[in-house]
Amino acid sequence: xxxxxxxxxxxxxxxxxxxxxxxxxxxxxxxxxxxxxxxxxxxxxxxxxxxxxxxxxxxxxxxxxxxxxxxxxxxxxxxxxxxxxxxxxxxxxxxxxxxxxxxxxxxxxxxxxxxxxxxxxxxxxxxxxxxxxxxxxxxxxxxxxxxxxxxxxxxxxxxxxxxxxxxxxxxxxxxxxxxxxxxxxxxxxxxxxxxxxxxxxxx
Amino acid sequence: xxxxxxxxxxxxxxxxxxxxxxxxxxxxxxxxxxxxxxxxxxxxxxxxxxxxxxxxxxxxxxxxxxxxxxxxxxxxxxxxxxxxxxxxxxxxxxxxxxxxxxxxxxxxxxxxxxxxxxxxxxxxxxxxxxxxxxxxxxxxxxxxxxxxxxxxxxxxxxxxxxxxxxxxxxxxxxxxxxxxxxxxxxxxxxxxxxxxxxxxxxx
Lengths: 203, 203
What we know:
With 203 residues, the first copy, chain A, is mainly α. Chain A has helices at 6-18, 39-53, 63-72, 77-80, 88-92, 94-106, 111-126, 130-148, 153-157, 162-169, 171-175, 180-192; strands at 25-29, 36-38.
């Protein structure tokens, strides 16, 4: 395209690039179990949850930034791909791969927007602010809901045990304390239903 | 689920219901042309565009409300289905079908959130505020980008002509005037490439 408007061309190039997130498949399923969820629809689901569950923030926070972080948090997967949270090997170099991907994807934008969106993504990744912790908790809680609504979903398919799921969900305890009893309830229920393995104590 | 927390149960029921938007297929394609786009990923794409193109608002506006409207604008399709914009028959009772669907879907929420989200959806549908017009324009501009990146997409597949596309895109001229030259540019280009029919004057 040639619009004689370099800024707008860069912005549209970024928007067009985002389309590729619709092709990045996550491990978990959509709730009718017909297929794996993609990262674009996952991001939509997590972002809209802010409007519903924002009231459970443990302290005053900027809901707008939480929503923006969740809209953005996975766009690096366009280049780096999705790394399954229980994939030990894939997670070893995940941070470095995703940082390089962020340079590339956000680098399509005009410099001021590159800096602005990158700062949001960096904040999410660092997980230190109350907003980042809340966003990270919703990201995990969304997966929990997908799994409990698909007979255990990835827990069942990949034979994950309760201890690892509890470990994975633990940030919710700090990020959205009010949701923690729900998380525990769902995990207990999944164990009782036999779709989440309780695991054996190590010898 | 029984959480002894009616409010949270209602909120989670709504969030679980939202998953079904991932199954609502739109007419337009994703950019690699491998499949039709669904309404959840379309909503994500349109909502994130607010962060990039918000600066082109023709007057002061609340970007947060625009983003929230775009996250929400299609959820009624969970019940009412997607109505193709060029489907004359389907559009006759679209408003009534979608209003009933909104009662049903937003009605899953606690009453205060039902009112709050319904007000945003009603505002988007009415299209009177600067925020609603901006959101509506991004909704249409997103489809334009999908079509120009898929060799005409739905224009080509459904043999739509230039006059109807211009008519469909016209709200952008008022909603985001700065984008209108881009819209015209893309439409001219699509005609030149033969993926958008110029149409014959009526006899």
